[in-house]
Write a structure and sequence with these properties.
Elements: E1 6-14, E2 19-30, E3 33-45, H1 54-80, H2 83-90, H3 94-100, H4 104-122, H5 131-143, H6 148-158, H7 167-190, H8 200-220, H9 227-238
Antiparallel strand pairs: 1-2, 2-3
Length: about 260
């Protein structure tokens, strides 16, 4: 029988603390599958004494610019997108835009920082869930936020070029992911749940490569490629099922 629905919620801040981000979802497991229902995902302004007047307007304008820049960079990349493209979307001159972000590089880094705040706050490191559930839920979450996967895929590919301002960001990000996943795979190995012969470091590197590759294919053929299904298949090859409540106890038999 399928398990009962489990509700989870969380909150955090994005836009350098100027917005509060909240989410609520329910999930349940049926065999190797995890079903997720999003119940709520909202943001609202927070900050110093309600932040009224010119300061509030400035912060709202800044968020509008970041939204526009997100769209431009996701569609055209850093090289192909221009400050004028962003300025046109928000009804500003390029000179006025530079009042909020002194350079195109500053704007790019602010967009990447905002993306990390939103996706990171939704699934904090201290959530009581294993590696498999964490990855699957993050993949589902990212697919449901417009432009998040597009922005990441376009800019990460573009960052390998010489003098790209995002090169250090993505180099460090991939390093953090490999180390984090290797640590989680090592924990599974210590629990006896990693299949024999699987190296945690190699498994981590493969997971990063697979996830990025699946996302690229999904962007090109969303009706044919299922990112979550691909990730589940990968984990099934490497990770042993979690033992049942009575498995391994004296006096129990299988079959």
């Amino acid at each position: 029988m399928p398990r009962a629905w489990i509700r989870r919620s969380g909150r955090g801040k994005c836009d350098n603390g100027n917005r509060k981000f909240e989410w609520v979802l329910e999930f349940r497991k049926e065999g190797s599958k995890t079903h997720v229902h999003w119940l709520a995902m909202t943001t609202k302004d927070v900050g110093r004494a309600a932040r009224r007047g010119p300061y509030a307007k400035s912060e709202e304008r800044r968020r509008t610019i970041l939204d526009a820049a997100h769209e431009v960079f996701a569609a055209h990349g850093y090289r192909g997108g221009s400050l004028q493209d962003v300025a046109d979307r928000v009804g500003l001159s390029q000179t006025s835009l530079l009042h909020y972000f002194p350079s195109k590089r500053d704007l790019l880094m602010a967009v990447l920082e905002r993306r990390d705040e939103i996706t990171g706050d939704a699934f904090p490191d201290d959530m009581e869930e294993g590696l498999v559930d964490s990855v699957i839920r993050t993949a589902l979450f990212n697919e449901n936020i417009p432009g998040v996967v597009e922005l990441y895929t376009v800019l990460s590919a573009e960052s390998v070029t010489d003098s790209h301002p995002g090169r250090v960001y993505f180099t460090e990000r991939f390093e953090r992911l490999r180390k984090s996943y290797a640590r989680r795979f090592a924990e599974l190995a210590a629990e006896g749940r990693l299949r024999p012969g699987v190296d945690p470091g190699e498994a981590a590197m493969s997971l990063v490569a697979l996830w990025d590759g699946l996302q690229t294919q999904w962007l090109l053929a969303p009706d044919e490629v299922d990112v979550v299904k691909g990730l589940r298949g990968y984990f099934k090859l490497l990770v042993l099922p979690e033992p049942g409540p009575n498995e391994g106890q004296p006096g129990t038999q299988s079959g």
